[in-house]
């Protein structure tokens, strides 16, 4: 097991509040730095039991354009976009990251959803994390590893309010407040990206 000690340094905890109305969004570009981020990425890439699910779009069945895995501190399942996932028990590495993220967010997470975007052809369509089991105004902590990808946001009712953020290797994005109620987010395809990216979203499933 390697050491995530760089997390303790102050520079890693320096974040910025992003100027979004009807939301609280904080970005920590160097939450995991250099070697640590790369080692965590490699371990997750090779040791995670990735699953490939089918999704139904307008009555037709497609492969979901990414691989996923769910981990939980209890056995509560999580259902989104018609897919019900059953959690694996947290690994020591995921538990360590959960604790470090909790020290910033002050929220005790019980679930983490991992997404593997194998290359730029994998993506995540417009949605918000507003499933009933997440409760009102959920705090969602999103850790990015591997290839940098753009994260797009659009307000549900104010069509002028759009935002785009480059999620860097080792960065942490905290989504809080009424954000999931007012905003949709997505990760578009990109022909330029040939490398994989892993995203972890820590959540509280009630
Ligand atoms: O990959 C990302 O950064 C976004 C993931 C996401 O939106 C989700 O898992 O709900």
Overview of this protein structure:
The protein is an alpha+beta fold. It has one domain (15-203): Sandwich (Jelly Rolls), CATH 2.60.120.590. The chain has helices spanning 34-47, 92-105, 179-182; strands spanning 16-18, 24-28, 54-57, 60-63, 67-72, 78-80, 83-85, 88-89, 111-117, 124-127, 140-146, 149-155, 162-167, 171-176, 183-187, 197-203. The strands form four sheets. The chain has an eight-stranded mixed beta sheet with strand order 1-2-14-11-16-9-5-8. A hairpin with a 2-residue loop joins strand 6 and strand 7 (83-85). The two termini are 31 Å apart. The structure holds 2-oxoglutaric acid. The site of 2-oxoglutaric acid has 11 residues, from strand 9, strand 15 and strand 16. 2-oxoglutaric acid is lined by residues 113, 115, 124, 129, 142, 151, 167, 185, 187, 199, 201.
**Most strands sheet:** 8 strands, mixed
Which runs of at least 5 residues are low in confidence (pLDDT < 50)?
A: 1-8
Q: Give the integer mean of the pLDDT values.
A: 92
Shape: globular
Could you state the order of secondary-structure elements as H and E? Answer: EEHEEEEEEHEEEEEEHEE
The CATH class label is: Mainly Beta
Measure the end-to-end span: 31 Å
Please describe the topology of this protein.
Layout: E1 16-18, E2 24-28, H1 34-47, E3 54-57, E4 60-63, E5 67-72, E6 78-80, E7 83-85, E8 88-89, H2 92-105, E9 111-117, E10 124-127, E11 140-146, E12 149-155, E13 162-167, E14 171-176, H3 179-182, E15 183-187, E16 197-203
Parallel strand pairs: 5-8
Antiparallel strand pairs: 1-2, 2-14, 3-4, 5-9, 6-7, 9-16, 10-15, 11-14, 11-16, 12-13, 12-15
The structure holds 2-oxoglutaric acid.
2-oxoglutaric acid binds at residues 113, 115, 124, 129, 142, 151, 167, 185, 187, 199, 201.
């Amino acid at each position: 097991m390697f050491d995530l000690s760089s997390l303790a340094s102050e520079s890693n905890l320096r974040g910025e509040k992003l100027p979004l109305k009807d939301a609280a969004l904080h970005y920590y570009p160097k939450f995991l730095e250099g070697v640590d981020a790369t080692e965590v990425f490699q371990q997750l890439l090779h040791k995670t039991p990735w699953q490939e699910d089918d999704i139904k779009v307008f009555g037709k069945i497609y492969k979901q354009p990414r691989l996923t895995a769910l981990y939980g501190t209890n056995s509560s399942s999580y259902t989104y976009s018609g897919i019900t996932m059953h959690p694996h028990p947290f690994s020591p590495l995921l538990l360590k990251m959960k604790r470090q993220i909790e020290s910033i967010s002050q929220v005790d997470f019980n679930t983490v959803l991992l997404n593997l975007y194998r290359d730029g052809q994998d993506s995540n369509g417009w949605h918000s994390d507003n499933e009933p089991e997440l409760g009102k105004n959920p705090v969602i902590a999103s850790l990015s590893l591997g290839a940098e990808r753009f994260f797009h946001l659009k307000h549900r009712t104010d069509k002028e309010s759009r935002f785009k953020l480059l999620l860097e290797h080792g960065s942490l994005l905290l989504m809080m407040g009424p954000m999931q109620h007012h905003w949709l987010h997505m990760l578009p395809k990109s022909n330029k990206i040939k490398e994989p990216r892993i995203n972890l979203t820590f959540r509280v499933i009630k």
